[in-house]
Amino acid sequence: PAEVVKEADGNKILRFVRTANVKGDPDGFASNCSVFQLVDLSALRQQLEAEQTQGHYSLKLSARFRRAPAASDAELHKSKVSVRIFLFQTEPESIGEAWPQVVRQAEALGKKSIKLEPGEDAIISASCFLESDATVALIAVAASAGYSSKTSVPLGDHFVDDLQLTVIKQPKLPVEVVSR
After folding, report:
1. What span, in angstroms and rounded, lies between the C-alpha atoms of 45 and 177?
2. What CA–CA distances, in Å, run from 118 to 61, 125, 149, 153, 162?
3. At a CB cut-off of 8 Å and minimum separation 6, what does 100 contact?
4. Do the Cβ atoms of 75 and 18 come closer than 8 Å?
5. pTM for this structure?
6. Helices (H), 2-160
7. What end-to-end distance do the CA atoms of the chain give, in Å?
8. CA 155, CA 157: separation in Å to the nearest integer?
9. pLDDT at 30 over 70
């Protein structure tokens, strides 16, 4: 589970509360706390097709993570935070119906994870090429205890804020084969 909390300055930030069995497997582990959002890419697709410009496009997901000191820090010496972006060619509803096995059907994937020490914060990002037939992006931010447990693990004070999903256009450069 995760919750939205209000900071002293009024800013709302997401707090990862505890790990859960994200795969729904009765014999599975409570490996992490993940928060997901589906993004319909159809309007973006129409816009890119209308421009008819030569180039490669990618999607970049970035987020600012913070780990505040907490009483449970000694047990969380391997904890990590991550961002992930999956691209699919499907209807958004079908992703929920086939969860979590559907991630194996992703057209493209970008992910990055790092270890955060108590008192640290970091901005991390992941990107992937926007495949020509991708219709939906699934973006995720997560915090994990860094070890497997059959029971839920409190995550202390791990937070995420300032999520950004950006489209990046890179020109198609000519390729020339040079032989010696």
Report:
1. 32
2. 24, 20, 21, 17, 20
3. 22, 23, 24
4. no
5. 0.86
6. 42-51, 92-97
7. 60
8. 6
9. yes
Q: Which of 66, 61, 73 is nearest to 14 (CA)?
A: 66
Reduced to 3 states (helix: H, G, I; strand: E, B; else coil), residue 143 is strand
Cα 35 to Cα 128: distance, rounded to the nearest angstrom:
19
Across 108-126, b (16+ Cβ under 10 Å) vs e yields: bebbbbeebebeeeeebeb
Q: Are 78 and 147 in contact (CB under 8 A)?
A: yes
DSSP letter (8 states) at residue 8: T
* Per-residue model confidence as pLDDT tens digits over 41-82: 988 888 877 776 677 889 999 999 999 988 877 778 788 999
Q: Which residues of 150-176 are buried (b: 16+ CB within 10 A; e: fewer)?
A: eeebebbbbbbbeeeeeeeeeeeeeee
Cβ neighbors of 164 (< 8 A, separation 6 or more) are: 60, 61, 62, 63
Q: What is the DSSP string of 60-104?
A: EEEEEEEEE--TTGGGGTT-EEEEEEEEESS-HHHHHHTTTGGGG
In the chain, the amino acid numbered 123 is I
Beta bridge partners of 126: 61
Structure tokens at 36: 């997901």
In this prediction, residue 23 has a pLDDT band, given cuts at 50, 70 and 90, of low
